[in-house]
Design a protein that fits this description.
By secondary structure, the chain is α+β, with helices and mostly antiparallel strands. The chain folds into two domains: 112 residues, no CATH class; 148 residues, 2-Layer Sandwich (Heat Shock Protein 90). Strands 1, 2, 3, 4, 5 and 6 form a six-stranded mixed sheet that branches. The protein is built from nine helices and six strands; from the N terminus they run αααααααβαβββαββ. α3 packs across α5 and α4 crosses α5. A hairpin with a 2-residue loop joins β3 and β4. The protein is rod-shaped.
Length: 368
């Protein structure tokens, strides 16, 4: 039980301490004001009042100050006829109530032999009390104006801060836009420069090595297709990519002196179907990179066909090594992500080993 009381005591002490710290400016201000007024009037009059009289009177004064401030904050001192009437009514009621309570306190503090209830209430007393009321009401008005000033200053600071943040953000966006514009211009200039160089090389070797010249054309077309795949139609006809696959096969034939064996088959209507670009090329390049395409008796196979609204792509090739080499799945993961992003719930992708030495990939995409 004692522990419970101690915990309650410490909790209450902590709350009181927090309240004192929060309102320390008010407490210090009122302490200085009351001490200075009590000392000045006491020394000037040559006598001091009773402590209970000071306590009751200053409690009433402080209450008047904060009650009037609360009224001003609630009405927000709007300059309408209705609000002016309300404030005037409050002021009159505060004056009457304060005079009554002060008279009641003064009457209760009189000695019994002197007491004749409210006998001391006369015109000088009422004027003095009215001045006291107006003094504390005036103080509360100044306090209200200080609160309003602080509130408006904080609002202006918040607006200025938001404007500054917006200005900084806009500046950052302008810089990012400028950088993006520069990058776009570079992206346009660099491919043109590269294609011009390839054209120059092609013209230089055409008379001496026609196969090398054809290889340069195939490479140039492949690179042009890859660069342009990010612009124009999002789903170009598959015939365009089929043509690039044929160019890629010719390049590998040139590189390995004809020792590349690939059977590339596709139906006539497959080229008319539209599919996201670089899907087929990524699949074929992955097969060339990791597969064994140099066995004439066991060639790699690429097959493209249609089935109603669906298009089917499959590859079949020998593996260079038993098991999948590191990084093998990166190209397939890229294909899987692109299929999921572009054809959610309308595609099938399967791949894996067969007979321990072949690797097969099958893709089926339903075109809406």
């Amino acid at each position: 039980m004692a522990c419970v009381y101690l915990n309650s005591f410490f909790k209450m002490t902590k709350e009181i301490t927090k309240w004192i710290i929060k309102h320390r400016i008010h407490l210090i201000g009122w302490t200085l004001f009351i001490l200075s007024e009590v000392l000045f009037i006491g020394f000037a009059a040559g006598q001091f009042g009773k402590p209970i009289a000071y306590l009751l009177h200053y409690t009433l004064n402080v209450l008047l100050f904060y009650i009037n401030t609360s009224i001003l904050l609630k009405t927000n001192c709007r300059k309408t006829h209705w609000q002016i009437l309300v404030l005037t009514t409050y002021l009159i009621l505060e004056l009457i109530l304060f005079v009554f309570l002060k008279a009641l306190i003064d009457a209760s503090l009189l000695e019994q032999s002197e007491k004749s209830f409210f006998y001391f209430v006369n015109l000088p007393y009422l004027l003095q009390t009215t001045f006291r009321v107006l003094f504390f009401i005036g103080l509360s008005c100044f306090y209200f104006m200080f609160i309003q000033y602080k509130k408006e200053r904080n609002e202006k600071e918040n607006i200025m801060r938001h404007d500054l943040e917006a200005s900084i953000k806009n500046k950052e966006l302008e810089i990012a836009l400028q950088q993006a514009t520069n990058s776009y211009l570079k992206a346009q200039i660099n491919p043109h420069f590269m294609f011009n160089v390839l054209g120059f090389i092609h013209d230089s070797v055409l008379k001496t090595d026609s196969q090398a010249a054809q290889a340069i054309i195939d490479l140039s077309e492949l690179m042009r297709f890859a660069v342009n795949s990010g612009s124009g139609e999002e789903e170009p006809p598959l015939a365009e990519e089929i043509q690039q696959v044929e160019s890629l096969i010719r390049l590998y034939q040139q590189r390995f002196k004809g020792r590349v064996f690939v059977e590339f088959c596709y139906t006539d209507d497959a080229g008319d179907r539209k599919l996201i670009p670089l899907l087929l090329l990524t699949l074929v390049e992955n097969m060339f990179k990791h597969g064994d395409i140099h066995k004439k008796e066991d060639p790699a196979k690429i097959d493209i066909s249609t089935d109603g609204n669906a298009i089917k792509i499959s590859t079949y090739n020998l593996m260079k090594h038993s098991g999948l080499p590191p990084g093998f799945n990166k190209g397939l993961q890229n294909i899987s992500i692109r299929l999921e992003n572009n054809y959610p719930n309308r595609h099938e992708l399967s791949y894996g080993e067969k007979k321990g030495k072949y690797f097969c990939v099958e893709i089926r995409v339903t075109i809406s």
